[in-house]
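Re: beginner question about structure tokens

> Can someone show what the tokenized structure looks like for a real chain? I only ever see the sequence side.

Sure, here's an example I had lying around. Input first:
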Amino acid sequence: MIVVNTETVPGYEIVALKGLVQGNTVRAKHAGRDIAAGFKNLVGGEIKGYTELLTESRREATSRMMQQAEQLGANAIVNVRFSTSAITSGASEMMAYGTAVLVAREGWRNREQA
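And the corresponding structure tokens:
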């Protein structure tokens, strides 16, 4: 599965539009991560626990989006975007969305006609 944040895939042409696909996950904060974040606020620096949480959330949302695209018969997703929003004071949603398409190598029509 090709996943890009551009409107096209270099070297390929879009031959069919399959539709909008999305994947999301809602994650709650971990009390231990909140304590570590409080200490980091005092001294500064990266809050690795939250970085890991966001990385896991992006991976899960992307995986769910790709599964939906596969169910539609797509082999690529273009214009991929990520969005996040607070659900409650302790949980946030990560959403990945894009357009599922069927792509073929550029010039595939010429090879079929030969």
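Each token stands for a local structural state, so reading them left to right follows the chain. Residues 25 and 94 are 6 Å apart (CA to CA).
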